[in-house]
Amino acid sequence: MIPRAGIVAVAGSARRGWWSGLVAAAILTASAPSIARDWGDDDVLDRDMKLMMQWFGGRYDNQEQVYFEAEQDLDEALRHERIHHIFFPVEIPAVPGTNFYVQQYLNDDAASIYRQRIYAFEPDYTRQAVRLTIYTPKDTAALVDAHESPEKLEALTPDDLTTRPGCQVYWVREGQQFMGSMVEGACDFISERSGQRIIISDDLLLNDGEIWIRDVAVDAQGNRIFGHPDNVHHKNYKAREFTCWGVISSSETGGEPVFVPDLRLHDQGGTATFASEGDNPVEVRIKLRNVRWPYGRNRDSLVLYAYRGDSQRAESYAWTAPDATRIAVNLRWMQASCTLDAESWVTRAATR
Fold first, then answer.
1. Cα distance between residue 340 and residue 243, in whole Å
2. CATH among 3.90.190.20, 2.40.128.590, 2.40.160.20, 3.40.50.2000 for 45-238
3. β-strand partners of 336
4. What integer best gives the mean pLDDT of the chain?
5. pTM for the structure as a whole
6. What ranges do the domains of the chain cover?
7. Strand, helix or coil at 44?
8. What angle do CA 207, 212, 218 make, to 5 degrees?
């Protein structure tokens, strides 16, 4: 196809002679491929991988799924445990592709880490998919909280990592989401822990604000070892990070008020606790949730809850628009205020 500028050049030359017009058209036609390029499958895959890498990083949590399963009184056997995921972008010279440090923990307890990995994403032009190779560090204890101290990862060598052949995940774009899965039956190995044969399958979905994860393991006879009994995904929303402060009033402490700065919370059920000192300390817990209603007419909202001690029932709460950048609550005896940390890597990952 000749660019519009070429049409103008040919038409203008008609008044100066047919020969100069043909020359101009030939020159412009010859240069057209550099402007109107034919895009091949490999180019599309490169573009899709770039978009996927923009979406993937961040912190995710299934707080909303856990809360509403309990709210609907779902059978205990079918409820999901609460899982928090950290996918921290990092460059590791010893690992190919685009890398992420992965740390996952249970039940809003950052100390209950159950999984640490290094993820490596590369374009697979044969399969026309983004290939994820999963590496397990041999010394996971040395890498705890490496997203806060990335220098822990810089010296990793191939000898520090293991990976299982056949357990790669292949991601393919479908509309405005990416679907990930393993080759059926390929992730097949003998467990070092149990000594039994295990076959793992993954089914995943990623978009610009969520990641859904369904991991299933069966033994050689097809008996389930782990995975949701109804094959329902863990549905995780991407979090933003806030910096908060809290106050306990002098009427509660019986002396000086307590002011606590620099509390950090994410908005997918992140919590922080602060307390007064003395013989009868007053403890306050605050929680931040970006509530997304799966039913009914209630509007989605960013909510800040205030709890006294270890009570599971909030003393009170405040709410605002889900994309708000500031929220506060004042109960006289305590106050708390949270402001979006726009410079946090977590927030940048959630808002890019």
1. 6
2. 2.40.128.590
3. 246, 329
4. 89
5. 0.86
6. 4-34, 45-238, 241-341
7. helix
8. 145
